[in-house]
Amino acid sequence: MSRLDTNIERLVAQRACLDELCAAITALAGPVVELGLGNGRTFDHLRERLPDREIFVFERQPAAHPDCTPDDAHLIVGDFYDTLPQGRSRLPSPAALLHSDVGTGDAARNAKLAAWLAGVVPHLVAPLGFVASDQPLEDPRLTPWALPDSVRRGRYHLYRRAS
Ligand SMILES: C[S@@+](CC[C@H](N)C(=O)[O-])C[C@H]1O[C@@H](n2cnc3c(N)ncnc32)[C@H](O)[C@@H]1O
After folding, report:
1. Strand 75-77 relative to strand 55-59: parallel, antiparallel, unpaired?
2. Whose CA is nearest to atom 9 of ligand 1?
């Protein structure tokens, strides 16, 4: 697979997973949380799909186009290791949906961050809320949720938080 193919597969999988969970949270109250603003692509997609939900984004170095950057009240700037342990206090209520898109080209760094995030993410998500992640998150409070048929296993990761 070329790097172009890999990138296209990642983005198509990401969109399919986010669309699936945007539909799944219809009956759940709570905001959306995104970890990793990047270029603001998925933030923009989520706000288009979920116009009535508040979306809070955590990012250490916001650099997206201003059109795809949340306002100050919805952008929590800082390293996840500093901001997420108290992250729940920045939200009006636990999240109905959390999207974690934090990967870089450094597999060892991704694995270390994912292992840490797995223990923190459940504190930010409402009971029976959903999580989509570019990295596998292993925690007993997060039950794997079936991927859309179009998404290759392991390409993206969906979970439902325990009640
Ligand atoms: C893959 S990009 C996100 C792409 C974005 N979802 C999009 O669709 O454009 C990952 C983002 O996570 C941020 N990030 C990675 N590790 C971080 C950390 N430890 N603390 C805060 N932000 C971090 C990076 O700065 C980067 O903007």
Report:
1. parallel
2. 39
Give the pocket of ligand 1 (CB within 6 Å): 36-42, 59-61, 79-80, 101-103
Per residue in 90-134, pLDDT (tens digit) is: 999 999 999 999 999 899 999 999 999 999 999 999 999 999 999
Q: How many domains does the chain have?
A: 1
Whose CA is closest to atom 12 on ligand 1?
36
Look up the domain containing 12 and give its range. 3-161
* pTM assigned to the model: 0.98
Rounded to the nearest angstrom, the distance between the alpha carbon of 163 and the centre of ligand 1 is 28
What contacts 24+ positions apart, CB below 8 Å, involve 63-72? Answer: 63/37, 63/39, 64/37, 64/38, 64/39, 64/40, 65/39, 65/40, 67/40, 68/39, 68/40, 68/41, 68/43, 68/44, 69/37, 69/40, 70/37, 70/43
Instruction: Supply the CATH number for residue 13's domain.
Output: 3.40.50.150
What's the mean pLDDT when you consider all of the chain? 97
Ligand 1 pocket mutation pick from 55, 59, 82, 135 by most atoms within 8 angstroms of CB: 59
